[in-house]
Each structure stands twice: as C-alpha cells, then as structure tokens.
Amino acid sequence: MHIVTQRLSRTGLSTEAKQLVDRNSLLTLALIAEDRTRSRQRFTTVEGEEINLQLQRGTVLREGDILTDEHNQAIAIVVAKPEPVITVTAKHPLEFLRAAYHLGNRHISLEITETYLRLSPDSVLEDMVLQMGLTVTHETQPFQPESGAYHHHHDH
Fold it and tell me: What fold is seen in the domain 2-80?
C-alpha cells in the first residue's frame, strides 16, 4: 500500500518539475468528484494497488494532480472518473447565464464551461432548467465542479 501525503497541483508544477515526473511510471487514481474531496481515505488505483490518502484536510483533488509520499516520490496521477451527470446547454447566452445564476444560488456542485453546465442528477433542478427552456442530457462523463469562490487550494 502507498501512503500519499502531498498533492502537487497540475497548474502549480514548473516545467522543470513536470520533466522530472515520469508519468508512465505513475499509478492512475480515477475518482468521482465527491471522492476527490476526501483527504483521508483508502482507494484502489486502476492498476489494482491500494493508496491511502493522508492529505491536509480540505484538500480537493483535480484532474492531473500528482500525489506524492512523504519523501516527495511521485506515486499517482489523479483522473476524473466518469460518473452519471446532467449536462445543460442553451441556444442563447442569456439563457445559459440565467441557468448558471439559479443553479449557483442553490449552492450545488456545478461544472461551468463556455458551452455547458454540468451537475449531479437531481430531478428538481432538471425540471427547473427545462422550464427555463434549456436542453438537458443525461450522460456518464468526468465531473469537475468549481471548487468555490472561497476555497483555497493548498499547493505543495
């Protein structure tokens, strides 16, 4: 079992540091969005090896983050595991903005891109956006919600 104590942010790595990490030698830790918020948990990698997360409380893992042990040895790379989601699209930018506003007011996990909004399945919210005239698609996709305006990433 591997004990992971640090997260190296995919955006926080220098070009030099990225070259030092052999991505082919890393284990792959595929996690759904909710599991990427757990800082103290045991998981099994895609390769079948166990990883025990012992990260700073409040750490949120993102796609591409590299997990290291206490000796800064790179162990695994995080990938967003596909999960059931609702993807919302709009024909007009104002409809899109209104939907983002109303979903955001409900303080749910929400992925926001230029072309779609993505959220966990919820029949009440689905009905709301349908009544607003938007298109809803049920899919199984990687879900990467915003971490929130007040969330502080702890890059190491």
Answer: HSP40/DNAj peptide-binding domain (2.60.260)
